[in-house]
Structures are given as structure tokens and as C-alpha cells.
Write a structure and sequence with these properties.
A: mainly alpha; two-stranded antiparallel ribbon; B: alpha/beta; Rossmann fold; 6-stranded mixed β-sheet
Chain lengths: 324, 503
């Protein structure tokens, strides 16, 4: 009987581990600082997580298809700089679609290399991380980019506006999460993403065009990055050209925290959203309990490794399981 | 002579998993110098029993005795130290290392300062290899060896310890007939040295050829042990599945339909040359030959996975070009592939999603998957093929081999193909499911499908086929009708001894 309950608990942990961990964090931080759970603070956390979150939605598709995308950080810098530059040259109405088109071209190139040429996604996107960074610096001449007339434009609406009392970045994140969640869970394309990531050979043997599916995942990731760049540019109406630096690892962390397997084939949009929120609330909570900003880099990774360990432990049914 | 004492004895082993009593009081002993077969359908508890023996699972109840001393096994290393050695179905060798390094991995002989004593390593290894009578030496890279020879390396590894009992788990699954002979010689040698051998296999011919006794499990329960010499296939099967099995040859279905598939002069580099044959609706054509004879490659070409270098493919008299599986599926060709887990199924996906995978784009309600229609398809083929699963949400990876194979077959039947190609339909599948799948293939032909069956098992090819295409080294040697075929003529043809005939 005792073993049965232990196994039940292990099963619940394996299935709902992330949600339970989330609840525990929230409770602990609330006890440490009651301000943590106030509406204002919650809104502020979700709003500042929105950019990371939007990027994580796209990367979720790439990871489930069995690949990685480490280029999203520098690609986001690229989108941000391009849209700010074009804002003054073409006007906001033209700048936005032009920036989306350019970002999607980069994403399509990655999708082509990984999907059709079947190059290793780690190498390709690591290379692109650096290449796009160089591209951004070349494009901007190494300068930061600012909109000339910050008060005379409606462009700030995506980053600063709000509707029905809810900040627009949150609305974009929520709307995109709902949309992409449906795409992944309910459409034929979503099913193909899981199949390709779960067993690419079997997917091919079932007539699924694997290259096209992977290519599409990178396009989705690119569109999400462009959206994140738009929010970023709109929020401050000016930007450093390294604004997205390091975000690729945080994005990947959120996706893994959400429980997607790096081997592909598992994960959901909903879980990624939870992963993003956990990351956001942990970083916020650390500040609220009075720790230095820089501590978050350490604590975040400790927590991620703990989460991965508990996840694996719950699946194996024991905490300690060395290879031999 | 005193009564021989068992080298290994398992007493009343009980092992439960949540919801399943995987082993329910199983007792089992192996005498020195005995080859003891362990048989049972997939899911009967053979693997669990071996995992208990290897220390991977702890039994809930029951004891293990080695040389009449009670032992507890805490893991594979301890099992090995106690003289219990496993030769696994899936080989666990480091391909980049040499034969010697693999054999003594973790126990390499040392000189001063921890340096490896390569001279002694080579000597020790070659001494063992000599006993096994193999044609490679200690320095050979394992990755360069054939599967059969890699298995010999595993066996050599077993011989480095003072083995009391050696467990062979489906050792012949990927061996050719010639390689099997070598394996059986090695087993005979071990036996002569007084080692107890547990031999797990689904292949009846082998069991009756080399074992002394047979123990049978069904649903985790011990069904009994019989002397091989005093029993026959039929009664063993009956003990395994709890009912009688119809192994009689089905009459050929003579009312053949239209010509469904014709292949003319098809070649693909060195893999196969000048292949011509026809398959009519209502007909099962068996493709028999050794591994590497080019049969699977022909199937892959027909399914769009491999472009031919010459020749034509005609479907219902029309020449077609097939460049991808999607093309093949659209033209009514389906392939149940050879490697069920690697090519047939997404193991982490549920039963329903696996079954409807080739038609995801057609099962839509607006932009979304029509999940109701999907469940209806799953239910239809679950009932028709008698797939045993708690429900469509079950992950395919949790099903037994036979049920997994039925999911793959259901997946392709639901596409309503004209030509159904089945590559090794019953590899690694228990005998009960095997006969169900054979029966199904005959039924499908009767319903008007054109069926191609590729198999390396002669009884299977003889049992299901109306005609048999015998292949050797990329060529068709001869095509037999079911009336004229004999085992001898078939073996001659696939060994390259007969004359080459066009189909």
C-alpha cells in the first residue's frame, strides 16, 4: 500500500510537476514579501515577461519538432533595430511589414538549412546567432537606434498602450499563445510537428513532408521573434543593438521548464507559458526579497537544473539514478 | 552419479507493477549443461523475469539461488559477478573501440601507473576468440563487424567471467542461417562445459533444434516445464496461448482480380537489378531471400523512398513515377515497414494519432483535426484487428509488439490502399499474434487487396503466399506458385544455386 501511494505521488509529480513547483514558488515568495502577489506586481511581471514569452512560443514549435533555435536573441535585436530605423525612413505603417519580411527571410534561411539540407540545428542556429549579430551591427553602423520624434508617433502602442486596462504586450502574448496553442494542439500541422519530432523516420514513412514541417516551425519562430522585436522597439522607441543578447538561453530555459523534451516530440504551448511565468516570477521575486539583480542569473539556472532533475526523477521513480 | 544440482533456481517470484501482476509466483531452474528455453507471448513476463534475475527489478516476493545459495541481485554488475551473464537482443557495444577493449571494458589489464597492458589484453582476447572459432581478432574495430560477429563479441565478453548461466535473449533475430549455425555451435560448447543456458526465442524450429527443456509463461504465470523431446510445436503453442492454433496451409485464393502492380526491369544501382513481377488484386506475393537480397530496397522504391536507376512501375497498367511516400500513398500504395519501432510508429504518440497519421491533412473539420472522425477510425480498426489497448489515449510505446504491429497495419488499411506491402510482418511478435496477422493477410487478399509480403521466415512465406518470388543478391532467381514450391527448391533459389528466371 505504501509503495502504491508513493508511485501515485510520483505519477502526479511527473504529470503536474511544473504546476506544483509554480504554486510552491508563488507561495514562498508571497510569504517572504506580501507585495509579490498584488495585482500591480503580477501585471508588471507578466508584462515584462511578454517579450520573452512571445519568443518562447515560437521556439516551442522548433523544440517539439526535434530541433533547437539559439538564434532568436540576436534575431530579436535585428528586428528591433530594423523596425526603429525604418520607422523614420518609411513611416511606421510600412516599417512593420518590412521588418517582418526581413526577419522571416532570416528564419526561412535557417529553416532551409535545417529542414531541407538537414544540417544540425545546434550548429546552424549557433552560427546564425553570431552572423545575425554581425548583420545587425553592420546595418546600424554600430550605433544605437532611436526614433527621432518620440512624441509624434503612434508606434508606441504595441509596447506602452493598454486596452480594457490590460497592457498591450500582455494582450499580444495571450492572443498569440491562444492562437499558437490551437495550431499546435488541434490542427493537422500541429500533429505533424509532434510526429516529426517524436520519430522523424516514422513520420516520413507516413507520407509527412518532414523538411517542410521543420521549415514551417522556423518560420513560426521567426514571426514570433519579429513580434517580440516590435514590442521591444515600441516600448522604448529606441534601442541598443544588443537588446536581445542572451535571451536565447532564457527562452530555451522557459521552454524546458515547461517540460518540452529537447529530444523533440513533447511539450505544449500552455506548458511553455507556465515556464515563462515561472521564470518571470522567480526573477521578480528575487528582487522583491531584496537580492541583487545579478543573483537572478545564478538562481535561475539552479532552479532550471532542479526542475529538469525532478522531472527526470519523477519519470524514473527515483531521485538517484546514476548511469552505472 | 548423484543428482545434478541446478546452477540457477528461481523460487516463487512475484513482481507487481501498478495495475499489473507481471510475475505471479514463477519458479524455474536451470541445470548445468542444459539449454532451457523460456517461452511465452509478448507480455507473458519473460522480460520481467530476466530483469529480476539481472537485478534490474527487485522481486516483491520469492528468492533467487545460484548454486543452491540464496542471493540478492542489486544490479547487472552483481549478477555478472555471480556468474549470470546476459547476451542481449539489442547489442550494447562501443562501435568505435576494438574487440578487445569491448570485451574487457572496465576491467582492462593494467601495468604500472595504471597504463593499459595492451599485449596481455590482446593475448587474453585472442585466446577467447579462438575458443569461439571466429575470423576476426582482438584489434578489429567492433563497428566493422557484422551483427552476427558483434554478437560473438558479446558472447566472448560473457566468457571472460566464470559463467554459471548464460541468458540468450532472441539471439537469432538478425542472423542469417549460416550465422545461426555458428551460434548454435557456441551454445553447444558452453553446454559441454557445464554452463546452464536460458534461451529466449519465438522461433519454434530453433527451440526444437537446440533446447533440452522448455518452460512456458502465460500472463505472468508459470505454465509448466516440458522435455523438448517429449513435446511438439502444437502443444507448446497451446500452453503459451491457452488455445489451439491453426497452422494449416490456407488454400490459394484462385479468383484473382485485375492487375494491380507491375514492375518491369526495375534496377537500383548495386542494390537490385532487372526486377520484373506482377501482383494482381486478391493475391499475396511473398518475397523470400536472405537479408541483403534487395527485397526491402524494392519495397522502398515502390513507396517513393528510393529512386530507381532504371525500369518502370505500372499501377493498373499506367506507368507512374513515385518520388516520395506522399506520392505513393496518393496512388494507393502502402508500406508496413520492417522496423516497427523505428519506421512504423511514433512511440510517444497515442494509438489514435499514430493510426491516422498518413491522413492528417484529410481529417479536418474547418482548420482543426476532426477528432471525432479520428476516434471513429481508430475504433473501427481496433475492432476489426482486435487490437488490445485500454483506449485510444494509450501511448503506442506501452503496447505489446503484436498490438503495435496491428496499429501499423490499421494505419495503412484505413488509407484503403490498392497495393499493401508488408515487410517482415511478424518480426519479434509472439506466436498468437503471428497467426492472427497471417490470417489477416489472407483475408485482405480475399477482399481484393494486392498484397506483397517480404519475409525472412520460410514457414511464414509458405503459409501466406499464393506465389513466391525468390531473390538472391539483388536478382529474382525464380518465381514459384504455391503448388510447385518446396522448401528445398526455395532454399536453393535464395542461395543462388538455381537458374535465374524472370517472374
Amino acid at each position: 500500500m505504501a509503495t502504491m501511494t508513493k508511485q501515485r505521488i510520483a505519477q502526479i509529480l511527473a504529470k503536474q510537476g511544473i504546476l506544483i513547483a509554480f504554486a510552491v514558488f508563488m507561495l514562498a515568495f508571497t510569504i517572504a514579501n506580501p507585495k509579490f502577489i498584488t495585482v500591480d506586481n503580477v501585471f508588471s511581471v507578466v508584462r515584462s515577461s511578454a517579450i520573452l514569452g512571445v519568443m518562447a512560443l515560437g521556439v516551442t514549435f522548433v523544440v517539439i519538432s526535434g530541433n533547437l533555435d539559439l538564434s532568436v536573441g540576436s534575431m530579436m535585436s535585428f528586428s528591433t533595430i530594423v523596425v526603429l530605423d525604418l520607422h523614420d525612413k518609411l513611416g511606421p505603417l510600412m516599417a512593420i511589414p518590412a521588418m517582418f519580411a526581413m526577419t522571416l527571410c532570416l528564419a526561412a534561411f535557417i529553416g532551409f538549412l535545417v529542414g531541407y539540407l538537414r544540417l544540425n540545428s545546434l550548429i546552424v542556429t549557433l552560427g546564425m546567432l553570431s552572423a545575425i549579430h554581425g548583420l545587425t551591427l553592420t546595418y546600424s553602423g554600430g550605433q544605437n537606434m532611436d526614433i527621432a520624434n518620440k512624441t509624434g508617433t503612434w508606434f508606441g502602442v504595441f509596447g506602452q498602450g493598454s486596452a480594457l486596462g490590460i497592457p498591450v504586450p500582455i494582450l499580444i502574448f495571450a492572443g498569440l499563445a491562444a492562437f499558437l496553442g490551437l495550431v499546435l494542439a488541434k490542427t493537422p500541422f500541429g500533429r505533424k510537428v509532434y510526429a516529426v519530432g517524436g520519430n522523424g523516420t516514422a513520420a516520413t514513412f507516413s507520407g509527412i513532408r518532414r523538411a517542410r514541417t521543420v521549415f514551417m516551425c522556423y518560420l513560426i519562430s521567426g514571426a514570433c521573434v519579429a513580434t517580440a522585436g516590435l514590442i521591444q522597439a515600441s516600448r522604448s522607441l529606441g534601442s541598443q543593438n544588443t537588446v536581445g543578447q542572451g535571451l536565447e538561453l532564457q527562452v530555451l530555459a522557459a521552454v524546458i521548464l515547461g517540460g518540452a523534451s529537447l529530444l523533440g516530440g513533447s511539450g505544449t504551448v500552455f506548458k511553455t507559458v507556465i515556464g515563462v511565468l515561472i521564470l518571470g516570477f522567480i526573477q521578480n521575486g528575487l528582487l522583491l526579497v531584496g537580492l541583487q539583480f545579478y543573483v537572478q542569473f545564478v538562481v535561475t539556472w539552479v532552479i532550471i537544473i532542479l526542475a529538469v532533475w525532478l522531472d527526470i526523477a519523477a519519470k524514473r521513480g527515483k531521485l538517484w539514478s546514476p548511469i552505472a | 552419479m548423484t543428482d545434478p544440482k541446478p546452477v540457477l533456481h528461481l523460487d516463487n517470484i512475484v513482481k507487481t507493477f501498478p495495475g499489473v501482476r507481471a510475475l505471479d509466483g514463477v519458479s524455474f531452474s536451470v541445470m548445468p549443461g542444459e539449454v532451457h528455453a523460456l517461452m511465452g507471448e509478448n507480455g507473458a513476463g519473460k522480460s520481467t523475469l530476466m530483469k529480476v534475475l539481472g537485478g534490474i527489478h527487485k522481486p516483491d516476493e520469492g528468492d533467487i539461488y545460484v548454486d543452491e545459495r540464496k542471493v540478492t541481485m542489486s544490479g547487472p554488475l552483481e549478477a555478472k559477478a555471480k556468474g549470470i551473464v546476459f547476451i542481449h537482443q539489442e547489442l550494447s557495444l562501443a562501435e568505435e573501440l576494438s574487440v578487445a577493449e569491448n570485451i574487457y571494458l572496465g576491467e582492462l589489464p593494467r601495468k604500472s601507473f595504471g597504463r593499459v597492458d595492451w599485449t596481455r589484453l590482446a593475448e587474453q582476447t585472442n585466446a577467447i576468440l579462438k575458443k569461439l572459432n571466429v575470423r576476426f581478432d582482438a584489434a578489429t574495430r567492433v563497428g566493422d563487424l557484422s551483427i552476427a560477429n558483434q554478437q560473438m563479441v558479446e558472447i566472448a565478453r560473457a566468457l571472460t567471467v566464470d559463467a554459471k548461466a548464460v541468458i540468450f535473449d532472441e539471439p537469432t533475430a538478425s542472423l542469417t542461417d549460416a550465422e545461426k549455425v555458428v551460434l548454435f555451435d557456441v551454445i553447444a560448447d558452453l553446454k559441454a562445459d557445464g554452463v546452464g543456458i536460458i534461451y529466449i526465442s519465438h522461433r519454434m524450429e530453433e527451440i526444437f533444434k537446440i533446447t533440452d527443456r522448455i518452460s512456458i509463461l502465460r500472463d505472468g504465470q508459470y505454465q509448466g516445464t516440458v522435455n523438448t523431446a517429449e513435446t511438439n510445436e502444437e502443444s507448446v503453442t497451446q500452453m503459451m496461448i491457452g488455445r489451439k492454433l491453426d497452422l494449416s496451409r490456407k488454400a490459394t485464393n484462385h479468383d484473382l482480380g485485375d492487375l494491380a502492380l507491375e514492375v518491369r526491369g526495375l534496377s537500383c544501382g548495386k542494390l537490385y537489378r532487372d526486377i520484373s513481377f506482377q501482383v494482381r488484386r486478391g493475391e499475396v506475393v511473398g518475397f523470400y531471400g536472405l537479408v541483403g537480397a534487395g527485397r526491402t530496397e524494392i519495397a522502398e522504391t515502390l513507396f517513393g523512398l528510393r529512386d530507381p536507376s532504371a525500369g518502370q512501375i505500372l499501377l493498373a497498367g499506367q506507368e507512374v513515377r513515385i518520388h516520395s511516400p506522399a506520392d505513393a500513398i496518393a496512388r494507393g500504395i502502402s508500406l508496413v515497414p520492417e522496423d516497427r519501432k523505428g519506421q512504423g510508429l511514433v512511440l510517444g504518440m497515442n494509438c489514435r494519432d499514430n493510426m491516422t497519421l498518413p491522413q492528417v491533412d484529410d481529417l479536418k473539420a474547418g482548420p482543426f483535426m476532426a477528432e471525432g472522425a479520428e476516434i471513429a477510425i481508430f475504433d473501427q480498426y481496433r475492432d476489426r484487428l482486435d487490437i488490445r489497448t485500454p483506449g485510444w489515449k494509450q501511448k503506442v510505446g506501452n503496447l505489446s509488439g503484436g498490438n503495435q504491429q496491428k496499429i501499423v497495419i490499421g494505419k495503412w488499411l484505413s488509407m484503403h490502399p490498392t497495393v499493401l506491402i508488408v515487410d517482415e510482418p511478424t518480426r519479434g511478435i509472439d506466436v498468437g499474434s503471428k497467426s492472427e496477422i497471417h490470417k489477416l493477410l489472407r483475408e485482405l487478399a480475399a477482399q481484393g487487396y494486392a498484397v506483397m509480403v517480404i519475409s525472412s521466415e520460410m514457414p511464414e512465406v509458405l503459409h501466406v503466399s499464393d506465389r513466391i518470388v525468390a531473390m538472391y543478391s539483388g536478382r529474382i532467381m525464380r518465381t514459384f506458385t504455391s503448388d510447385e514450391v518446396t522448401e528445398d527448391s526455395l532454399i536453393q533459389a535464395i542461395s543462388g544455386l538455381g537458374d535465374s528466371h524472370a517472374a
